[in-house]
């Protein structure tokens, strides 16, 4: 079960997006739809949430969001470059004016010395011109804690971007 703090943050984010007359599109990988779920806990979520994509495989990232296969080959699915292309793809395939993308390694396996479990990239794109990506390192042994931490960080990132738009 999610704690009340993250649910309250999601509601605050929802309200800020609504006040700013934005619509959001979400592209998720390692968080598996958790960020989208958090937005839909608010009644009237359809006023701000245009669409959400859960693209877990590389193939779906390419086919659904338009992530370039060359980008996946050169940088890997867990990279700033892929997060940026996911956000761009979500924005271009929606009626939104802000998009957020999450890609990372939730574990418990799949990590390496270069890309350890808990490495997450979150990209936020505003109005098809302004993109920013942040790298996070969540030091948890628990897959669900990493997913929640990624969604929580995405909410903070979105709030910051909307407040400073």
Automatic annotation (TrEMBL):
The lineage of its organism: Bacteria, Pseudomonadati, Pseudomonadota, Alphaproteobacteria, Rickettsiales. This is Competence damage-inducible protein A. Signal peptide: none annotated. InterPro entries: CinA-like_C, CinA_C. Pfam families: CinA. SUPFAM superfamilies: CinA-like. It comes from Candidatus Mesenet longicola. Residues 12-160 form the CinA C-terminal domain.
């Amino acid at each position: 079960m999610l704690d009340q703090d993250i649910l309250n943050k999601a509601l605050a984010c929802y309200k800020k997006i609504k006040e700013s007359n934005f619509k959001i599109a979400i592209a998720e990988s390692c968080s598996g739809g958790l960020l989208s779920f958090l937005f839909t806990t608010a009644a009237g979520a359809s006023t701000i949430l245009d669409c959400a994509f859960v693209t877990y495989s590389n193939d779906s990232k390419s086919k659904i969001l338009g992530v370039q296969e060359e980008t996946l080959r050169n940088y890997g699915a867990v990279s700033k470059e892929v997060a940026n292309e996911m956000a761009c793809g979500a924005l271009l395939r929606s009626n939104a004016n802000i998009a957020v993308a999450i890609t990372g390694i939730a574990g418990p396996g799949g990590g390496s010395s270069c890309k350890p479990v808990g490495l997450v990239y979150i990209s936020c794109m505003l109005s098809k011109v302004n993109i920013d990506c942040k790298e996070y390192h969540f030091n948890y042994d628990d897959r669900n804690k990493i997913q929640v931490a990624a969604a929580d960080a995405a909410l903070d990132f979105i709030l910051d971007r909307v407040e400073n738009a």
